[in-house]
Design goal:
With about 180 residues, the chain is an alpha/beta fold. It has five helices and six strands. The chain has a six-stranded mixed beta sheet, covered by helices on one side.
Length: about 180
């Protein structure tokens, strides 16, 4: 068992060293990820969306993509919206933001009437992508570089692994090299 833990630690350190060498933020160890699958440093799962609520699917080729798993009833998810709006404003076309809810369209559309969301809103009522990651708590965010590697995953307001403007800027900058 100890050798297995050592192998995992060595692999994590190697992935972190490679990411830092490429200019990406290091993969920070976390006590609680709020997901069954740690996909940081790995290829992101294929994004499954049943319906786009505010326009067509965004163009994500050669872009940094932030995916937010959220719900209208979730206070922490609602608190994240102004931050996501600010990221979209600051980073413009360098960052594609997609918020995915598994709620029904009428609930989300009603919420959108009262809440400004300057990014793409999608529905996945079957929870396909959420299930692949094993999301256990929301909001849950992943940020992918243009090569489809997950550079950030977690609860964005966590003290352990907080999503910050600086981390997003670093991912964008490293992606342009």
């Amino acid at each position: 068992m100890k050798s297995f833990a050592l192998v995992i630690a060595v692999l994590a350190a190697t992935a972190t060293a490679a990411a830092v060498a490429e200019g990406y933020p290091p993969i920070e160890p976390v006590e609680k990820l709020y997901a069954d699958n740690d996909i940081r440093g790995k290829a992101a799962p294929h994004l499954v969306v049943k319906e786009w609520l505010n326009g067509p699917a965004p163009k994500t080729h050669n872009k940094v993509v932030l995916i937010d798993f959220w719900a209208t009833w979730c206070p922490d998810c609602r608190n994240l919206i102004p931050e996501l709006n600010a990221y979209k404003k600051k980073f413009g076309d360098d960052l594609v933001i997609i918020a995915i809810s598994d709620e029904d369209a009428s609930t989300v559309k009603e919420f959108m009437k009262k809440t400004n969301m300057d990014y793409k809103i999608a529905l996945d009522p079957d929870k396909t992508t959420k299930t692949k990651i094993g999301v256990k708590g929301i909001p849950h965010v992943i940020v992918m570089s243009p090569d489809n590697i997950v550079r950030y995953q977690g609860y964005p307001a966590s003290n352990e692994n907080q999503l910050t403007e600086e981390k997003i800027a670093q991912i964008i900058k490293a992606s342009k090299k």
